[in-house]
Structures are given as C-alpha cells and as structure tokens.
Design brief:
Its cofactor is heme b. Homooligomer of 24 subunits, arranged as 12 dimers, that are packed together to form an approximately spherical molecule with a central cavity, in which large amounts of iron can be deposited. It comes from Streptomyces silvisoli. With 182 residues, the chain is mainly alpha-helical. The chain has one domain (28-181): Up-down Bundle (Ferritin), CATH 1.20.1260. The chain has six helices and no strands.
Length: 182
C-alpha cells in the first residue's frame, strides 16, 4: 500500500481546522487568487460570446441565413452552459463570479460584434472561437497539475470551442459559394 506524503492524522486535523475552505486544501497546488481571476476572465468571455451569438441569431438575414442562424443559436446555448460551469467552479473555489455588465467586455478575451452581414458574422464568430481556443489552451498548460479539476473544466470547454471553430469554418466555406450560385 502506498504511503501518503502527509500522515492521515495531520490531513484530518487540517480538514477540520479549515472546514470553511470547502474543496481547497493544503494539497491545492495553484495560485488560487490568480485562478479565480482567470476563471472570471473566461466567464466574461463566455458571456460576451453568448451575447454575440444571440445577436447574430436574431439579426441574421438573407437567403442562406436560416441554417447559419440555427448554428448561432446552438452555439449561444452552449456558450451559456460554459459560463454556468465557470461560475460554478468559481463558487466551489470560494470566489465570486463577476457578472458585472459594466466591465464585461473589458475582461473578456473575445470581442463583441454587431456585424449585419452574414459572412462578417461568421468570420467574427470564428475569430472569437480561435481566441478562446488559444486562451484556453494556454490556461490548461498554465494550470498543469496545480488544479486538475479546473484544468478539466477548461479541457471540456476547449473541446467544444474547437468544435465551434470547425462548424464555423465549414459554414464560412459554404455560404459564400452558395451565395454566388443563388
């Protein structure tokens, strides 16, 4: 049987003494304050992406808009789920999720977009997804083994952001071609 690095009596005593810290124990290996800041930046990013996709969903128009708008709505709903996961993790770590609309776009890695042209919408959404992919990849690498749970949250988000980027790239390749044929 493997031995613990810390004897179990010490672990039990710490667990009782620091009960108010919830899941954050002495074994937590990351900079908690910085992790919470990064999580809140990612939360802002996901909220901005949700809002951008919702706007694009409602304002997409033209002959080819229906299937693209459906994709925008699907992505908006998934981005909202990402925001919910991030907010939940922030609370688990003893932090406060920052939903302040006054600072949302300043904290977001992605930009909000108010394009009216369908191709421009797709391009801007693809840029935002690529920003999320790059940011989340760096965050995962930075977290390493210091906070495996938060790392897994970002790994799940990253997989879906990559899927979104692939979806948008595929739509962008088809929409202009179809528009020329119409």
């Amino acid at each position: 049987m493997a031995e613990f690095l810390t004897d179990i009596e010490t672990i039990r005593e710490r667990a009782r003494r620091e009960i108010d810290k919830g899941p954050v124990t002495d074994a937590y290996g990351a900079d908690l304050e910085r992790v919470l800041r990064v999580l809140n930046e990612a939360l802002a990013t996901e909220i901005v992406c949700t809002l951008r996709y919702k706007r694009h969903y409602y304002t997409a128009s033209g002959l080819l808009a229906e299937p693209v708008a459906a994709e925008f709505l699907e992505h908006a709903n998934e981005e909202q789920q990402h925001a919910d996961k991030l907010a939940q993790r922030i609370v688990q770590l003893g932090g406060e999720p920052d939903f302040n609309p006054d600072t949302l776009t300043k904290r977001s890695h992605a930009e909000y977009d108010a394009s009216m042209d369908l191709v421009d919408m797709l391009r801007e959404d693809l840029v935002a997804e690529r920003v999320a992919v790059a940011s989340y990849t760096e965050i995962i690498q930075w977290l390493g083994t210091g906070d495996p749970t938060t790392r897994r949250v970002f790994e799940e988000l990253l997989a879906q952001e990559e899927e979104h980027a692939d979806d948008l790239r595929g739509l962008l390749e088809r929409v202009p071609r179809q528009a020329k044929e119409a």
